[in-house]
Amino acid sequence: MISFKIKVFALFLCCVAGYSYISSLSQDIALSINQQSYQANYFIEGSQTKRFTVEGKLESILNAKTLEHYEDIHVTLFEKPHITFFSQKENSGWIIHAEEGILNHDNNMILLEQQVTLISSRSQDPIQSLKTSTLDLNYDTMIAHSSERVNLIGQNLTLSGTGLFADLEEEHIYLQQEIQGVYENK
């Protein structure tokens, strides 16, 4: 039993360290765009990008009102990104949208900001939606992190907390601090 607790604690420490590193990378990218004048290589209105697995299954669709790509710094900016993620599990997935997004092509991390919402594609899932102000999402692994306030809404359930670790592929969501909740037995 002690071995299991040590493993869980080690996993938690790795998640915290990884989140700190990812957050610093996302902030560095945003600052470099604001401090220097870069010319977008291309600008697209009404963009749509589809990703497929090696087996040819649809993995995700990313729509955006506008897209600006900066090749020199390996970054793409999105206005009103809307991502539909299709899990490899049967009939599950997430719809994710925000006001702004920054994709770092070096590590495939998307920083989503302002009114970030995740909605489950299955009505029977215990957690139906998640809302926060900022979310870092690994586009390859579909692992998400946030250090901000998070609100979860589910069937007969409302939770809130500060900090989030979510594996959207495995459908595991963890609030990290100041957790409060209400469950209504109906």
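Second entry:
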Amino acid sequence: MPLRSPLSSRLLSLLLLCGPGCATTTTYLADRCDVSLAELSPAEAAPGAAVKVSAGPLTRSWDTSVLVGGVSAVITDLERDGCDSCDLCRAQADCNACDDCDDCDALCALECDEALTFIVPELPAGVHALQLINGHGSSAGLSFTVLPGASLDTGAPDSGAPDSGGADTSAADSAAPPMPG
């Protein structure tokens, strides 16, 4: 049986520890609780379009994610209008984020108007699950139709040729004036 040096044993141990755990993966952990998605406007849209969704309860934009087909969407606006009384009621009734707060449900439904706006990410046309995740938990998936659309323009000079995914090195691009800095 061959003998292993202390260095090779340490390298082997490091590979065994790091091998399965060194991949970068984003995992969203949240309870599935009182977070809901309601009305979408528009109900279907192409990549790059803004969509407003009535949802709740909402928190703040820094702890909120919208996923469309598992792809993160950019949130451009998060509105919580008239929600101060609702928030105070929930705090006074000692309702945590995942509790049904019967003492405050009627007040919150009457006074609190919550919505957010997101940009549809680049996805193939078709029906995709729309999900909201925030400090209160996560919503169930809501079907959302992504319409066919052109890829988003980066604003950089372009040759007009179809995008190959690589660098665009056509003569038309090299003749373009430099972008102002």
